[in-house]
Amino acid sequence: MSALLPVRLAIDAMGGDHGPAITLPACRRFLDQHPEAELLLVGRADALAEAAGWPRTRIVVATEVVTMDDAVEIALRRKKDSSMRVALGLLKAGEGGRALADVCVSAGNTGALMAVARYLLKTVEGIDRPAIATVMPNQRDGYTTVLDLGANVDCTAEHLLQFALMGSALVAAVDGKNEPSVGLLNIGEEAIKGSEVIKQAGELLRAAGEAGRLNFHGNVEGNDIFKGTTDIVVCDGFVGNVALKTAEGLAAMLSNFIKQEFTRTPYARLAALVALPVLKHFKARVDHRRYNGAALLGLRGLVFKSHGSADAFAFEQALIRAHDAARRGLMQRVHDRLQAPTCADEPTPAAA
Amino acid sequence: MSALLPVRLAIDAMGGDHGPAITLPACRRFLDQHPEAELLLVGRADALAEAAGWPRTRIVVATEVVTMDDAVEIALRRKKDSSMRVALGLLKAGEGGRALADVCVSAGNTGALMAVARYLLKTVEGIDRPAIATVMPNQRDGYTTVLDLGANVDCTAEHLLQFALMGSALVAAVDGKNEPSVGLLNIGEEAIKGSEVIKQAGELLRAAGEAGRLNFHGNVEGNDIFKGTTDIVVCDGFVGNVALKTAEGLAAMLSNFIKQEFTRTPYARLAALVALPVLKHFKARVDHRRYNGAALLGLRGLVFKSHGSADAFAFEQALIRAHDAARRGLMQRVHDRLQAPTCADEPTPAAA
C-alpha cells in the first residue's frame, strides 16, 4: 500500500440544523482518535471559542452562516463570508501550489453546498457534472455505495459512465478495494431492459469494463442495493434520490410500527423490556448515522456532505469518511480513473 | 352509492410459481366469502378436477401454461391455448355485447400478461400505454397506490397525467374515495424541481386539478409513499419499479436482521419467545401479502396481477381487490375520468 498522507480537514462548523453544538463535540472526538489529523474550524469566533486551546486545530473566522432554508442564490451571491464558503475556499490551491486544506466537510444545505463548491472549485477535466455518492447498509454487513443521489436529473449515458468511474475511485480510496464491482440500476437484469439512456449506458459500462477501466457486473435492480450484489450502484440523480428517500420512508415507518407494537399493551411493554438488548443490537446494526457522509465527486477538491440533522456521532462518521478518502488520495484516484484508457491500478503493457 | 354489480371473475388457475396448489384453495375461500360472485376457472382439466362440484363455478379448459420464464413472444405467438390467454379472452365482449367475465386475475409472468392482455383487449380510447398500479402500506395504517410500476419507461408528461386519472378511478372504485389525492413523485416539493418531463407533468396535473378532473396535491418525495401523504403517487415505470424493488429489498434485509438478532444468543432466543406475540402483530401489520393484486389499467377489460410467488392468502387478496374493482364499475370510472373535461363524480353545469 502506498504511503498514507497526513490530512488537514476544513470544517464548516456552523452548518447543519445544530451547528457548533454538534460539530464541535464531533471534531473533538475525531481529533483524539486521529493523532495525525489537523483541523481548520470555520465559523463565528464567539461560537467556536471553546476550541481555542485544542491541539492541531486552527480557527478560521467567517462572519456569516448559510441556513438550511437559504436559497442557492443567497449562498452564492450574498453571503460571501459564510462558514460554508470560507471552508470550501480553503481547498483552493494557494500561491505555493498546495491548498490550506485537503478535504472539506459541511452539514449545510445540499443545494447551496453543491453550487458554492462548483463555483469556487470548478469540476475536474472530463466531468460535466459533479455527483453525490452515499452509502447504504447491505445484507453482507457491509454497505453499498450509490450515486448519483439527486445532483443530476436528466443524465446521459456518458454521465452515468463518469459516475461509475468516480464511484470506483471513491470505494477504492475509502474501503481499500482495488476493483470494486459496479452495477447499473435498471428494472431487470437483462441487457435489453430499461430506457434508451440506460441501454446506452450499459454498453458504455461494458466497454469500459472490457478496457479494464472498471469492474462492471451488469444491470442490478432496486433490491440489489440492500443485497449488496455490487459494491457500487450507478443511477441518475432522480432515480437515486427516489430510491434513497423511499428507503428512508420505509425505515421510518417500520421503526414507528415497532415502537407502537412494543407499547400497545402492558404485556407488550414487558416484552419490550426483555427484548431491549436484542432490539438495541438490531438498531445499532441498521443505524443510519453510521453511514453519514456523502461525497461530492468530480470537483477540483474533496467535499463531504453530512446530513443536516446529524448528531455528534453521525457528524464524526462523516469526518472519518472524509479523512480516509483524503488520506488515500481520492482526488488523484478520480483523476487517474477518468484519464486512463485502462485500469489505473493495474497498468498493462498495452496501456497508452 | 350506486348499485353494486354481480361479478364474474376469470381466473388463470395455472399461473404463478405454484399454480392450482395455491389458486384453488384461494378461490374456494373467496367463493365462501362472496356469495354473489361467480368464477370461471381456466386451466388443464386434470389440474382443476377438484373444483368440479363447486358452487357458482365453471371450469374452462385450456391445454397450455405460460411459465414464469417464458418469453413474451412464446406467450403471444406460440401458446395460443394457454390458461392466461384463454382467461383474458373471456373479457372480450361476445356476440350479445357482454363479455363472459368482468375481470381476470393471473399470477403469471408480468411481461407476458401485459403483452397478451394488450394484444387481445387493446387499450381504451385516449390511452397510449396501460399502466400497472400497486399498493404499499403507509403510516396511516392505510395504503398508498403507486403507478406506474414498470410497464412504461421513458414516459411523457401526458402519460403521467393519464396514470393520475386512471389511478384516481382505481382508488375511487376499490376504496370508495370519490376524490383521492394525487402526488407527483419528484426529488423535492418545490414546483421548480425535477426533470423537464416532471415539470411539464406538474403543469398538466395542476391544470387537470383546476379543471376538477382530479385532486392534485403537488409534488411528493419517495418517503411520502410510506407517510401516506397522498392516496396516489404517480411516476414513470422506471422510477416506480426502482422504488418498489428498493422497498422490497430493504424490508427483506431488515426482516433477516431481526431474525438473526433474535436467534444470536440463548438470551435472544428467550427474548424472542417472550416477544413473539408482539412480533407477530408487527409482522401481520406489514404483511405484504395483504397488498397483493396489482391493477393493469388502460385496457378494454379489467385485469389484476398477483405476485408470482403468492400463497393462497395472498392470491385471495388479489381476487378480493379484483372483485371490488369490478363490482364498483372501475372500467366505467376509468372511461369517465379520461373523457370528462371536469370531474366525473361531480358534474358541473359547465360540463360539456
Automatic annotation (TrEMBL), chains A, B:
GO biological process, one term: phospholipid biosynthetic process
Enzyme class, UniProt record, top EC level: transferase
Gene Ontology cellular component list: cytoplasm
UniProt-listed Enzyme Commission number(s): 2.3.1.274
InterPro entries: FA_synthesis, Phospholipid_synth_PlsX-like
Keywords of this entry: Acyltransferase, Cytoplasm, Lipid biosynthesis, Lipid metabolism, Phospholipid biosynthesis, Phospholipid metabolism, Transferase
Family: Belongs to the PlsX family.
Function: Catalyzes the reversible formation of acyl-phosphate (acyl-PO(4)) from acyl-[acyl-carrier-protein] (acyl-ACP). This enzyme utilizes acyl-ACP as fatty acyl donor, but not acyl-CoA.
Name the record gives this protein: Phosphate acyltransferase
